[in-house]
Amino acid sequence: SIAILLYLARKFKTPDHWYPSDLQKRARVDEYLSWQHVSIRGKAGKLFLTKMLLPILTGQPVPPEKLESVTEDLNVVLKQFEEKFLQDKPFIAGSEVSLADLVALVELMQPLGVGHNPFEDRPKLAAWRKRVEEALGQQLFQEAHEGILNASNI
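Structure (tokenized):
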């Protein structure tokens, strides 16, 4: 949860870029963390559940119009994310990776795990993803997302 992430950042005095002491940068992180619950988390999670869980629970394929609607909802928030939060910056809070970037990317890995690539045809989003992965380390990032990226193999 966001509350736990903020607690851990404070308790263990993580490097400043994760949860910046600069008030403007921290406000950007806080703004994103408050927005993402009903936007990217909600829409990416709904796409994951619709493509993965709904067919298992109902024993029926998802109607194409339902999948199209859920996908369009995600596309709307991805556009908002790019325009409002990324703008022309390398990361959400500016020039360094933060908890906001980490949380955002984790949410966007869910659709990827069920065969929907939210980074496709979005060069700004794809470049941001690459920067976040590089900041975290490729091996750690892949290891952390192994389960979700193989979700459709269950």
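Residues 64-86 form the longest helix (23 residues). The chain has a mean pLDDT of 93.
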